Sequence to fold (600 residues):
Amino acid sequence: MKIPFTYNRFLRIFFSVCFIGIVVYNLFIFKKEDDRIRSLKKLIPHQVIAHQFAGLENYIKDVDYLGYYTDAKPNDDEQSKLLAYIQYQIAPTIVDFNNLNHEYILFACSSESVAYEIMKKIGAEPVVKNPYGMILAKRPWPS
Amino acid sequence: MTLIVPYFISFLAGLCVVLSILKDNKRSLSSLFLISVSFGLGLALCSMSTFFCTILFEGYHPLLILFLNVSLTALLGCLNIGPLKRFSAQLLIEIKASIKNGFVWAGSIFYIILCFYIRFAASLHPWGDWDAWALWNMKLKFILYNGADWTDIFHKLHWHTQPDYPLLLPMMNAWGLCLYPQYPQINAPMMTSILFTLLGVLLLYSTLSLFIPRLHAYLASLICLANPYYVYKATAQYADTAFTYYLLGCLVFLYLAVQYKERSFASILGLFLGVLSFCKNEGIAIFLLIASIFLLSLIIHKEISNPTRKNIALWFLGSFFFAAVATIVLKFLAPANRDILTNLNGQLSYFNWEGILLVKKHILEEINDKRWVHIWHIGLLLSVLGIPKLLRRDIWPITVFLLSYFIILLFIYLTTTTMDLSWRLKSTVPRIFFYLMPAMLFITFLIHFKKDPAKDR
Fold:
């Protein structure tokens, strides 16, 4: 089907103008974004991830597995994020979710009493606790 | 500096491969087009060789990988001295011609300014977004630091880490770190994401400028590069950024292969498809679609002889399987995917009209999202107004591919069983729109602004 020349020309001009308008508008947004980002950078100079587990890798060097215990609901989004954070932070150590059968276990519980109760049951001793309520514990392990 | 050397080696390797394949091709292809194609293919080639070395030598040995890739590049260089000389001469001629062209100066300066913005946007999230540190960069750490046990990523990690996902991106980053394998001290993933953002835009511009006025091709590339949301998503260090580039490459070479019926274009199409399958699992579905459509187009278009048809088909399939060896090997190492088309015999709670309406709702929300600044409105309107052109003999394969891909995605969504569909749509629809945007711009600009077909180079 042959399309009239003038219709083609109209479409080309119309859409060129629309897209040029979009690009120009985007460039204005760039400036706004730039200002927003620079003001944000004054508060947070760089992206911070897995800060809840910062320094943990110093205690578990050359450890193959880290048990991870939490009393949060199974499909809790925040817990999924924490699990992903810690796996990234301590890779290549493997985080074994809700498995207490390891020498080192990280407790990410809603309260310390829950964590200490579990530790008492399995005979684990706390190694270090951070300001975010994360407790790294160690249990007796055959060498 | 430590990243520039591996990237440059990749570029040289890719250039040798592309020039070797295109040496009998009579089409006039610009240097910029050849550079944008070569860089991406070269990175993929080095990523795959890193993958094979890591398997064969039971761990990541950066100096060995560097030695092998340098040797491979040197060998390819020696075998392609003639094409390399011709390419260098062509590049010099084009640079000399461009120096006197004000448009080239203005356009290049503007690109450079936007590049600084891309770098700035990337520095906002130097560790990437969720999938970057939860999947790709986490797996990179296993590859770099876990010796022979790097394969733990397939069977010992939580299922959230998607152990079935292909490894093009982490292996590419591992290759980038071969001179100084310390991540995150050297942020190869960030540089890779910046590079693919630029390569995608350059490929879009250089391909379109072969067929439409350069000003319009430049406009198409600016639509991506000037959109802050696009740039932010592109620098999130997801495999989607590389996937965007390779998908666009597939569509570009599908168009060239159908238009010109040359085995060299079919060969490069096969390579891009093979690489795409090692980039994300969707690449396998895309290969099946594009392969079927391309082979059908060979059958339908009667003007080529049977021997030529068979020759083109063999080169296409041969190139694909050559590039897909890594994907095939990965399927033996990794577990099966648990999210796509699983449990089809069970209860499919979304395979109904409500499911379709839910998908439609999320798609419309994404199209209307102000972050896209009406790009999708205009693009889709252009497509609808150009429906007769979408059925042209050189364009219909891309049209059929996009429609079929949409149907496949719809089917995958409606057969969701392992998660909430609303959550799945919310997480994936923006990314699909992101990686389809250059493809959408390619086809809409091509059909509406293409110069007289009789004057095609």
